[in-house]
Amino acid sequence: MTPKKRIIIKLSGEALSGQDSMKPIDPLRVQAIAKEIKDAYDLGTLEIGIIVGGGNIWRGKIASEMGMERSSADYMGMIATIMNALALQNALEALGVETRTMTSLNVSQVAEPYIRRKAISNLEKDRIVIFGGGTGNPYFSTDTTSALRAAEIGAKVILMAKNGTDGVYDKDPQKHTDAVKYDSITHHEVLEQHLEVMDSTAAALCKDNGIQIIVFDMNVQGNIKRVASGEKIGTLIY
Length: 238
Fold this sequence. Notes:
- This protein is an alpha/beta fold.
- Helix content is 37%, strand content 20%.
- It has helices at 27-41, 60-65, 70-94, 116-124, 142-153, 187-192, 200-208, 223-228, and strands at residues 5-11, 46-52, 99-103, 112-113, 128-132, 157-162, 168-169, 181-182, 184-185, 212-217, 235-237.
- The chain has a nine-stranded mixed beta sheet, with helices on both faces. Strands 7-8 form a two-stranded antiparallel ribbon.
- Strand 1 (5-11), helix 1 (27-41) and strand 2 form a beta-alpha-beta unit.
């Protein structure tokens, strides 16, 4: 029997929000994303871990720049990621997918504590595992959480689902009409050229641990399943 491929899907918090600014978590949007993830899960060849950001609710870095103490601001951001994780868990379970939310912060009333061996056990039992609470430490992004959890659980690829961006460019395509998209690029080149795919700590972690990243647009219906099944979409970072 062929062993299943273990992957991490990285979602931005903004992907869970709707057009209405009064809905930082839009139930219909969350349901649509859950359906996309279920389609990938139904391939039957994957063990799926998910990291979701909290930027739709709170951005610790911005709050810090406005004068708030950085550690407190970052902890608030971690709590926002747990809220998003629970929303996504509920939507997945409504579709009949067994799911566990594990968090690096101690909120045992609503989620399991993150324990590496327990997370791997859940994955091996065909449960989708959503990792909330970031790394549990301030000053680290959910990009870094993705790289860290991938390294810990032995996932060799991170599917970085972008909200409206279809890959990695040599410069911002929204500001420069001559921006060139990469089909593939090395971790070293990403770091050397200061491409804003993910923060440098996360990129270095992926480089050091041989973790590939595929950057793609999640707003195209079916893209999560296509990328998960090996179709060449977006940009491969290796």
